[in-house]
Specification:
- Chain B: Pathway: Amino-acid biosynthesis; L-leucine biosynthesis; L-leucine from 3-methyl-2-oxobutanoate: step 2/4.
- Chain B: Its EC number is 4.2.1.33.
- Chain B: Keywords: Amino-acid biosynthesis, Branched-chain amino acid biosynthesis, Leucine biosynthesis, Lyase.
- Chain B: This is 3-isopropylmalate dehydratase small subunit.
- The structure holds 2 protein chains of 2 kinds.
- By secondary structure, chain A is α/β, with parallel strands linked by helices.
- Chain A is built from 15 helices and 19 strands.
- Among the domains of chain A are: about 140 residues, Aconitase, domain 3; about 180 residues, Aconitase, domain 3, CATH 3.30.499.
- Chain A is about 30% helix and about 20% strand.
- In chain A, helix 6 packs parallel to helix 8.
- The longest helix of chain A is centred in the first third of the chain and has 17 residues.
- The radius of gyration of chain A is 21 Å and the shape is globular.
- The N and C termini of chain A lie far apart (about 45 Å).
- In chain B, strands 1-6-7-8 form a 4-stranded antiparallel beta sheet, with no helix packed on it. Chain B has a 4-stranded parallel beta sheet with strand order 2-3-4-5.
- Chain B has one domain: Aconitase, domain 4.
- Chain B is an alpha/beta fold.
- The longest helix of chain B has 14 residues.
Chain lengths: ~475, ~210
């Protein structure tokens, strides 16, 4: 009967607080430069010690330059934040993976990569894309500054158990369809608020077939559907991927862990509050056209006309989005001229993402008018990619090969897409101003982004098969 | 945390769907800044012209809604990023309550951590409050009474709303969650000791 959610949530309840609230134990906490230093400082100033510094891990990622040859001083505002974080982790005994060090990277890339997050664990971080970590079968969610302070002081959080939703993706992935396309298609179909109040479990044959990297991408966009938690049950794919990672259990302990983790998947007769199905045959490579991730089309689609909107609210939203994006209703989305391409972010900056993009670029060149950046998700991804020669492949095609961090996903590091410029981005948010004031963002997979860079316009990756 | 009991004033309408936290406060304003002083940057991409002057077409710039303590919003308000700065910016603008048909989960939790009350009401009621306020040019007020769990519209209609009991108490008294939780410190440590024995693999890799 129990779901994966039940099997992780229930054993983590320290106390029933009444009114449907539980005090939930947080097995791991991740902090980053944007809010981590302040949170640690505020806990201290309030007179509380950090409850379990051994369960807290820090990495600078948000406000660090991604420029080749960068140092922590390259972006001065971020340098002050990083100095604050360094001071507080030193005082409190929190482990930090500092800029340029092995283990450093985007918080939701380095967490799984180091085995900090494990199946069946709870993990929180002051970042909404913490749901990414659910890709290894954990219950992971983003929290605000006050909740972060609470968890640092107590290792727990008062939370209400979310409702359960399952989305099954059944069938084989059609050509050009990646995990990014799967989740964008789901958001397009169900809406940007469909998951509000839910924890989403992704299941079905197409999810089972995904690598852990792909599952992390899938879970990453849960929050763009409104769900602060997304999960894929751990299986042999997960165990093989996690085995030997820095903080994963070793030896006999590993064997005991795997035996326990095998009992975590939802029971066959588990009932979900909402159970949805997507046939993989219905998914084509996706590209967003608007300023909400739900405003998404297959790349073969045409820009929608507000006159066709189902209601006034949508009509107004579509009109505002089309104006901001500078698009014409009725025109094919493919062929729309692009100025920038960004491959990176906690959504799509892992080794498989870089391989997929490099595959499209092989023997091709970035269009002259396009500025194209690739920002690996972590030091390890960067070194692995360089060992495979991917950096050279990107450079030869005309991409800039940059240093790990959040970079153009959130534009908190002094880097941004210029006003009015159009960017195909592998990140997770196409919100107004997200990549810079006036920047126009189209979300897509790494391969689609690479195809757009080559075409100089939004392009169907299926025409660029290797 | 600031207490919340009752709040009264013109209710300002921002009735579009999916207003995300990037729109409420751009990340650039939160890099290296504190919890205060963010009011002038709330909604800045909608609120100001390129030259920094007020955008006269932005509804919250209209004289009758300036300094309004109640924001009327559309579905999925506060979706997106976990930045608590979105709440700090709204409070800096003077808002103490937001009424919407639905909210982003993380934003919703962040509100009550700061003495801001998020209220879920159906869109038709929100539209009605907006229409009544507009008809009176903002001269008639809406009241939010947390103790009685009522929104009183400009025309005097009392609309009940639900609020989580735990959050209601915390807002009414301005309670600090951490102090309450630490009363359970023995249970937290007891939970850990039991789990350490039951699931040693979760802990062995990270312990020092």
């Amino acid at each position: 009967m129990p779901t994966l959610l039940d099997k992780i949530w229930d054993p983590h309840v320290v106390a029933d607080l009444g009114n449907g609230w539980s005090l939930l134990y947080c097995d791991r906490v991740l902090v980053h430069d944007l809010s981590g230093g302040r949170a640690l400082q505020e806990v201290g100033e309030a007179g509380y010690p950090v409850a379990r510094p051994d369960l807290v891990f820090a990495t600078p990622d948000h406000a660090v330059s991604s420029a080749p040859g960068r140092t922590s001083e390259t972006f001065p505002t971020g340098a002050r934040l990083l100095a604050g974080l360094r001071k507080r982790v030193a005082e409190t005994g929190v482990r930090m993976f500092d800029l340029g060090e092995d283990g450093n990277g985007i918080v939701h890339v380095m967490g799984p990569e180091l085995g900090i997050v494990l199946p069946g664990t709870t993990l929180v971080c002051g970042d909404s894309h913490t749901c990414t970590n659910g890709g290894v079968g954990a219950l992971a969610f983003g929290i605000g500054a006050s909740e972060l302070k609470h968890v640092l002081a107590t290792q727990t959080l008062p939370q209400r158990k979310p409702r359960s939703m399952r989305i099954r993706f059944e069938g084989a992935a059609p050509a050009g369809v990646t995990p990014k396309d799967m989740i964008l298609a789901a958001i397009g179909r169900f809406g940007a608020a469909a998951g509000t109040g839910y924890a989403v479990e992704y299941a079905g044959s197409a999810v089972r077939a995904l690598s852990v990297e792909g599952r992390l991408t899938l879970c990453n966009l849960s929050i763009e559907m409104g769900a602060k938690m997304g999960m894929v049950a751990a299986d042999d794919t997960t165990f093989q991927w996690l085995h030997g990672r820095d903080f994963a259990p070793k030896g006999a302990s590993w064997d005991a862990a795997v035996a326990a983790w095998r009992k975590l998947p939802s029971d066959d007769d588990a009932v979900f509050d909402r159970d949805l199905l997507i046939d993989m045959r219905d998914i084509a490579p996706q590209i967003t056209w608007g300023t909400s991730p739900e405003q998404v089309l297959p790349v073969t689609g045409i820009v929608p006309n507000p006159a066709d909107a189902p209601d006034d609210e949508k009509r107004n939203a579509w009109e505002a989005a089309l104006t901001y994006m500078g698009l014409t209703p009725g025109a094919p989305i493919a062929g729309t001229k692009v100025d920038w391409v960004f491959i990176g972010s906690c959504t799509n900056s892992r080794i498989e993402d870089l391989r997929a993009a490099a595959e499209v670029l092989r023997g091709r060149k970035v269009a002259n008018h396009v500025t194209a950046w690739v920002v690996p998700g972590s030091e390890r991804v960067k070194h692995e990619a360089e060992a495979e020669g991917l950096d050279a492949a990107f450079r030869e095609a005309g991409f800039e090969w940059r240093e790990p961090g959040c970079a153009l996903c959130v534009a908190a590091n002094g880097e941004s897409v210029p006003p009015g410029a159009r960017c195909v981005s592998t990140s997770n948010r196409n919100f107004v101003g997200r990549q810079g004031t006036g920047a126009r963002t189209h979300l897509a997979s790494p391969a689609m982004a690479a195809a757009a860079a080559v075409a100089g316009a939004i392009a169907d990756v299926r025409h660029y098969a290797a | 945390m600031e207490k919340f009991t009752t709040v009264s004033g013109p209710a300002a309408p921002l009735l579009r769907a999916n207003v995300d936290t990037d729109v409420i406060i751009p990340i650039q304003r939160l890099v290296g800044t504190g919890r205060t002083g963010l009011g002038p940057y709330a909604f800045e991409r909608l609120r100001y012209e390129k030259d920094g002057s007020d955008n006269p077409d932005f509804v919250l710039n209209r004289p009758q809604y300036r300094g309004s303590p109640i924001l009327l919003a559309g579905p999925n308000f506060g979706c997106g990023s976990s930045r608590e700065g979105a709440v700090w910016a709204l409070m800096g603008m003077g808002f103490r309550a937001v009424i919407a048909p639905s909210f982003g989960d993380i934003f919703f939790n962040n509100c009550s951590q700061n003495g801001m009350l998020p209220i879920v009401l159906p869109m038709d009621i929100i539209d009605r409050i907006a229409a009544e306020t507009e008809a009176a040019q903002g001269a008639r007020h809406t009241t939010v009474d947390l103790a009685r769990q009522l929104v009183v519209t400009p025309d005097g209609t009392e609309i009940p709303f639900t609020v989580d009991g735990r959050k209601k108490e915390a807002l009414l008294l301005g309670l600090d969650d951490i102090a309450l939780t630490l009363r359970l410190k023995d249970r937290i440590e007891g939970w850990y000791a039991a789990d350490r024995a039951a699931r040693p693999w979760t802990w062995e890799g990270v312990e020092r």
